[in-house]
What we know:
alpha+beta; 3-stranded mixed sheet; about 15% strand
Amino acid sequence: MRMLxxxxxxxxxxxxxxxxxxxxxxxxxxxxAIADFCGYxxxxxxxxxxxxxxxxxxxxxxxxxxxxxxxxxxxxxxxxRVYKSxxxxxxxxxxxxxxxxxxxxxxxxxxxxxQLMVRGLKRSERRGQAAIAARRTVTVRIRGGRxxxxxxxxxxxxxxxxxxxxQRRLTVRSLRRAGRRGKSRAA
Length: 187
């Protein structure tokens, strides 16, 4: 399975809008962030409902099969929580949006999606905009519960390996052998 996230410039804009909403509670900033997200993935906007708490304060957000998302409003975020930071609220929003996008094996995919959305957001602005714009979509291939992060060919960075080269060779060999025998493996 391949997982695509928006380019870093677009993710920073979404993140900025979510942070602005967290501080000012202006609904327009939140709508801009959600519209940008849905526009990139070409999905309709989820129905988002705000709550003071969900499941007696145990849950920060919940996504339902019909596309509804229940979130704890930022005004109520600091009440009775261990993790009270703005960053945790933003990552909760990303997590629930990840559930909205990926229905099968939703929890693992939502976690990977959250990590990819926040990767590179805190980078210093001293890099030129051309270098940031040159970075394209990040592709993640999930194989057997492990992920391999690959970047577009125009990126100067090396591929970050989560799986060792030996493990990857063994996996590729076993897939080829299974293909020769007429068997298919689900990834």
